[in-house]
Amino acid sequence: MRTRDWVPPWPLDIRATVGLHRRGSGDPSFVYGRDGSVWRAVHTPDGPGTLTFRSDGTTISGRAWGPGAQWLLEQMPDFLGARDDPDALVPRDDVVRELVRRAEGLRIGRTDRVWAALVPAILEQKVVGAEAFRAWRYLVRRYGERAPGPVPDTMRVPPPQSEWARIPNWEWHRSGIEPVRMRTIRGATALDVERHHDRLTLLRGVGRWTEAETRIRAVGDPDVVNVGDYHIPKLVGLTLAGVSVDDDGMLELLEPYAGQRQRIIRMVERHGVRPERRGARMTVRDYREF
Fold first, then answer.
1. 282 within a domain of the structure (yes/no)
2. What is one cellular component GO term in this UniProt entry (predicted)?
């Protein structure tokens, strides 16, 4: 086990900052402890590793295990937003000013692991979260290795990039993933995504939405916009203008905040206006029955 203590020089809301990396409540690679700790298992440049950290209100105390332990501890401040600059966002109206006030402690962190963010983003393409999370759980539990350290038996390190291409067709089917997303992930294994995270849309099946979802997490891009998302344009429109809008309307509303548009979106997701629920929820499909 390796350890590190780090004192953030600014307010930090840990869950608001790292929560987007958790793929559902049953994510085998990301767990919240009852004591307020965060547990994360990931394949680093040095191999598999587990990182856990918690705050006493001032100091972040981190512990890590496995070949990737040192890398995870060195990267921990960036994961918690050390390279982020919230002051780059200058509110232009009272609505955004109130969002900034309520979101104090929210940082845009980065994992510096592009593949680890890309695969779940592809799984989440054009489906409800429950469907994507189910597939992620199955594939990581089936093909990930046990996370190093004193972790629950169910916690796993997701497979490295090269291993995803070797998953047989029938296992993708058992996970509930249809051939289109399977082929997209397999095709993506041919690109060194860690070096070329700015070229993801060159991959077949990877569009602007998938690129945005990946860059938000992997490189902490404060400006990328989730064009094509089912919910976000509505939330942005209702919060900033009081009306539901489409992608074009969202881009127009965010244009004055170019350079910080993702920060606005993150704040809106946590503290913005919620639309009234009407009608049935989207159906969770199950390709395992086909």
1. no
2. protein-DNA complex
Q: Helix or strand or coil: residue 40?
A: strand
Q: Which residues contact 60 (CB under 8 A, 6 or more apart)?
A: 5, 6, 7, 8, 12, 53, 54, 76, 80
Q: Which domain holds residue 22?
A: 2-218
pLDDT digits (tens, 9 = 90+) for 135-167: 999 999 999 999 999 998 899 999 999 999 999
Q: Count of CB atoms within 10 A of residue 54's CB? A: 16
Q: Is the dihedral of CA 143, 78, 202, 128 positive or negative?
A: positive
One domain, residues 204 and 243:
no
- Asked whether 257 and 223 are in contact (CB, 8 A), the reply is no
Q: Which of 173, 195, 218 is a domain's end point? A: 218
DSSP code of 159?
P
CA distance 11 to 81: 11
Query: Considering the domain boundaries, does residue 208 fall inside one?
Result: yes
Q: Is 228 exposed, middle or buried (0-12, 13-18, 19+ CB in 10 A)?
A: middle
Strand partners, 145: 157
Q: Is residue 225 part of a domain?
A: no
Digit-coded pLDDT (tens) for 216-268: 999 999 999 999 999 999 999 999 999 999 999 999 999 999 999 999 999 99
Within 10 Å of residue 207's Cβ, how many Cβ atoms?
Answer: 13
Q: Is residue 93 part of a domain?
A: yes
Rounded to two decimals, the pTM is 0.94
Same domain, 141 and 262: no
Same domain, 52 and 142: yes
Quick one: angle between helices 261-271 and 232-240, nearest 10?
90
